[in-house]
Amino acid sequence: MDEHLYLFFHILSHALLGAAISYILLPVGTWVQRISYIFIGGLSGIAPDLLGGRDSQPWTHSLLFAPIVVLWIALIAKLLLRKVSFWRLWGASTASAIGGHLFLDYMGHDIPLLYPFSDKLWIMEALTLGDPWVWFPLAAGLLLAICLKRKTKLPVIFAVIFVLLYCTYKIIVKSIIYQEVEARYPVGEVSYITVTPNTYFEFDFDPRTWLKFKYRTISSHHYQGGIAGYWGEKLGSIDYHSFYPKKREVVLSRGEYTVIYDNSSDSFYMDVTKEWVEDGYRYIEGTFEDKTYLYKEITPGKWDEVVEQN
């Protein structure tokens, strides 16, 4: 997906979910008031990003500061909607910011939810922000609500329920795939598994594409992964598997495990072509720069190259 298009749908998702929450929580009103509710909720849904990014201004993406982040919106809303209680407007704006922004961010990437009491970054990473399964039903529900004369909240409620069920589905499937990867691809040493949506910076008009997941396992010596499919049905084969003979340090960075790369001359990786166990020892064969290498695990986590004798 084009970076600007991705950003547009990312922001749109926040705005629409925020608008839907506000629309549900505020009292039934005239057509003009309904438009106002959508505007207030949509603005609240993107407010944390308007006041600063989660990296430079972590307080804007904290649950504890959510009421402060939208206070200015509630004050403006009170000037426009004099008959609606300020506390109700403030509460709806706060709920829109938490549900429309912080919740979606947590589903997609890391955020400091408990700042300033904790610097821990919370992340589920089961959803790609900009997912049409989120913004499309919300847009349809809000549009229908504006056009209806009676029971205007009903389509919006159904849209929000659909989004929550969809997010639940993504969390459950991610958990299933995680357990399947853990069982199918043991690497013989401490490894870290990551299961994420398969649609980052990609755009496909087929909505089924957004349902798929990808996975990877990372350890001191191994890096492997591939496409998991909808329910993990594609886990029978590995798309890539790299082996690093020299041990690397695995660290946790921004909610994900990564490695500290060694740029020394004796550090390289090979594409694994074969693995097996013989006489109680694990062997790995692979290629690097058109040359084949064979390694044997002498002790847990320590590999030595096997050199054929002429």
TrEMBL record:
<protein>
    <submittedName>
        <fullName>Metal-dependent hydrolase</fullName>
    </submittedName>
</protein>
<feature type="transmembrane region" description="Helical">
    <location>
        <begin position="59"/>
        <end position="77"/>
    </location>
</feature>
<keyword id="KW-0812">Transmembrane</keyword>
<dbReference type="Pfam" id="PF04307">
    <property type="entry name" value="YdjM"/>
</dbReference>
<feature type="transmembrane region" description="Helical">
    <location>
        <begin position="89"/>
        <end position="109"/>
    </location>
</feature>
<feature type="transmembrane region" description="Helical">
    <location>
        <begin position="154"/>
        <end position="172"/>
    </location>
</feature>
<dbReference type="InterPro" id="IPR007404">
    <property type="entry name" value="YdjM-like"/>
</dbReference>
<feature type="transmembrane region" description="Helical">
    <location>
        <begin position="121"/>
        <end position="147"/>
    </location>
</feature>
<keyword id="KW-0378">Hydrolase</keyword>
<feature type="transmembrane region" description="Helical">
    <location>
        <begin position="6"/>
        <end position="26"/>
    </location>
</feature>
<keyword id="KW-1133">Transmembrane helix</keyword>
<keyword id="KW-0472">Membrane</keyword>
<dbReference type="InterPro" id="IPR053170">
    <property type="entry name" value="Transcription_regulator"/>
</dbReference>
<dbReference type="GO" id="GO:0016787">
    <property type="term" value="F:hydrolase activity"/>
</dbReference>
